[in-house]
Amino acid sequence: MVQKKIDAKDGAKTKSSVRALPLTETLKVRLLEIKEKQKMYQKKFKRSYIKEWLDYVMVDELGNLILPDYISSSFKLVLEKNNLSHIRFHDLRHTCASLLLNKGKQKGVDLKDIQAWLGHSDFSTTANIYSHLDATSKANSLSALEGVVAL
Questions:
Q1: pTM for this one?
Q2: Is 63 left (phi over 0), alpha (psi -120 to 50) or beta?
């Protein structure tokens, strides 16, 4: 079996990718549960526990870093098991942005907010990718014009 070399980087792809996002109480509780589980595994496995990744959240029972390709391959299996269409895990990012755009209007979420959420450095990137999904805004704009312009 070939051992993978892990090159962990505590950084992001671009400057705008480094951002602070809100932490819900539910997520906070879950992260604290994971941390407690890690402490329990450290006690249980003693010297066998890998201490290199103690500052990381996503480690297995022995303290090994969980690799990104594990998430992608596991996601694929979940889709297959539940007879769902194949999409890439990364596609959930687009789904999130689309939902924010279409459903977030009532709560004041706009493309600028979505740009910050996704970490796009340039507003035009967000606008070019997601503006076509904003059919509700187009319909609202038409209604507003219709009320102003007498036919």
A1: 0.63
A2: left
